[in-house]
Amino acid sequence: LYEAKKNGRGRHQVFAGDMDDLLLRKRTVETELRKALDGGSGIRLAYQPVFAANGKTILGAEALIRWGHDVHGALPAAQFIAIAEERGMIGQLGA
Fold first, then answer.
1. Domain ranges in the chain?
2. Which CATH superfamily, name and number, covers 2-94?
3. Is the dihedral of CA 30, 31, 34, 36 positive or negative?
4. Would you tell me how many other CB atoms lie within 10 Å of the CB of residue 31?
């Protein structure tokens, strides 16, 4: 259903075998993300400076979310942000 929604309204999606693997991976990440959010471990903010074009002046800072997974190590935000948005956990992630 999520794959069909992603492709736009009024469309259908035929279930393929690789979608089962994708669904399982997403479900695993979702479950582990919920545990991390509830337990308060592994998820942190990292601040990165934003420089002017001259490369010398710091204009501000950008907050980046990081998840140091117990088993898989550092997971890229792209791997869990979309799942957090889909599952309504994005508010918890930013809290």
1. 2-94
2. EAL domain (3.20.20.450)
3. negative
4. 10
